[in-house]
Fold these 2 entries.
Entry 1:
Amino acid sequence: HADSAMYHAKSQGRNNVQFFSPELDLFAMRRMRMEHDLREALASRSFELHYQPQVDARSRTIVGVEALVRWRNSARETIMPGEFIEIAEQSGLILPLGECVIDEACRQLRIWRDQGYTALRMAVNLSALQLRSANLLDFVAATLLKHEIGGEHLELEITESMVMDNPGACIAKLRALRDMGIHLAIDDFGTGYSSLSNLRLMPIHSLKIDRSFVRNIESDSDDLVICTATIALAHNLGLKVVAEGVETSAQRDLLAGHGCDVLQGYLFSKPVDAAAMDALLAVSY
Ligand code: C2E
Ligand code: MG
Ligand code: MG
Ligand code: MG
């Protein structure tokens, strides 16, 4: 509640119309305000993408980047996705926001490709609503065409739970994306619920081990077992493995030693804006 109150207090400064009701709790107020602000932010293009490198575990070169959305609010503060994605999802605003993200990620990838980083893959997170939307396939196809990018340079990240909603329909849609050459990754693997039989049916290319399993990999033998078993499972299914949340060189060495293909985390870089990513690419592409 402390931060709802803070959010509300902050918002008072930029709106003359205030409406207080004892029945409306702070969470509901915050949600309404947030939804309103998100709508305005979309109209004023106040979202920007940061990029986090994905590093090949053997060569230590950058093989991909994950696009992560940030919101620059009217006070020029950066709001992280954890604070607004859920409300964007519940209000349906994730659909236009998600389209902006795909378009901007492809626009930026075009620039990097033109600079010669031609093997770089751009990973974009999808939300459940986007995956269910009837427009997704057409939008992605049109956006790839617009920026002259082959499907194989785009990776879409989904989660296990998104597919469990309606496995049949989702898998059909994922197949269509795969048939466009697009790579598909399961994000936060191990934290959602999905059956191994569904996993086997999914036309995916990689699993991303959730960072909660990576965090204590050096000290917690259960976490190490989960990571090594996930790597073995993925490889036996013909999939690549990405480890998220790699923060230390010990975690890097342990994961690389167990055959993890790609590493992502603060050890290499936090998500950074496009200009800072340019500098990273120049030294480690
Ligand atoms: P995610 O897709 O699992 O992204 C990884 C998150 O972990 C990012 O947080 C990233 O900054 C953070 N991270 C990366 N390396 C490390 C590390 O070494 N240590 C720690 N502690 N954290 C690390 P971020 O950017 O706040 O994004 C949070 C989540 O918001 C994402 O999780 C993703 O689910 C969602 N998200 C971000 N951008 C988008 C988007 O454009 N669309 C949708 N639908 N969801 C998005
Ligand atoms: Mg992700
Ligand atoms: Mg993740
Ligand atoms: Mg996630």
Entry 2:
Amino acid sequence: ELGVYEDFMMKEIHEQPEALRATLAGRLDAEGRVDLSETGLDLRHVNRVVVVACGTALHAGLLGKGLIERLARLPVEVAVASEYRYADPVGDENTLVVAISQSGETTDTLAAVEAARYFGGKVLAVTNTRGSLITREADAVLLTEAGPEICVASTKAFAAQVAALDLLALELARVRGTVSDDELLSLGRDLRRAPEKVAAALALLEGKTEAAVELFEDARCSLFLGRGPAFPVALEGALKLKEISYIPSEGYAAGEMKHGPIALVDEQCPVVAILGEGVLREKTLSNVEETAARGANVVAIAREDDAAADRVGRVVLCVPDAPEILRPLVWSVPLQLLAHDIATDRGLDVDKPRNLAKSVTVE
Ligand code: F6R
């Protein structure tokens, strides 16, 4: 079943283009038009969105929040399911609750859905598992089509969740008229290139992690930094690394460094920085320069031929240029590969990290 791959994690990282293609298929046509009528949801009266999820799915939710707020101008709350279920949450029948779960069986996420029932919220389940419990609890279902994910650490299911939320953001923007038709179609056509761009990232990064892995050989801990859409990607990169390599790793908004975490920085605390684009890239660069000045070994995730990245990074992991909507997916690829290669370098079983289960059906 593994084919040419040494483990399921590597296989599933490489299945991301296919997971994206299958998740977009039938929901996004060649002109860039989105069709989510399969959900049967009437989105016209939605005035607020709440995302409930755990772990990696929560990070996909944070990316969804950014896009829904920017395009559809709706307030979005992203809630940790285990907290939300006991929080006596606020909402009404116009609140759309988006419950994201690869397995569809996560107890805390199911309980969060139940909590949303008290205020009459409509629940959309974004899940990878047909017939799972959550598909029965929700009002509507948007299946991610990543195929079975065997590795405990989620990769291709995450990519598919991000794509599903991108579709939802475009659909909410269309229904609400917050983005012009032309721009919506153009964003839709960009989104259609997700499989191609993620495949390009995989090709570009093949066999390129060695120097970065070396920086982690004596690591006590590590920090993952990003701003804007790169922040949730940093959180996900840190989660991936800590769960399979057992190196304490934290994701931080790059601008928060000076409020505490920079005290951690020394030669044994590598910093992985997703530089991003535009104004945020400049801001991130200056935050990362501060860590480098304090001795951090920086792994910069940047576009090819980025001279500033070469200056600040001991190692640069290059990603292809991509339309804005696809960048979080593209940035995720080097972080997944890095986590995988650091853990295998330590002789660890990446598919079955200690203390973890694929599906968390206890509280
Ligand atoms: C991390 C990981 C977990 C899951 C979380 C939710 O790699 O896989 O954090 O994302 O346990 O699981 P689902 O999506 O099945 O509800």
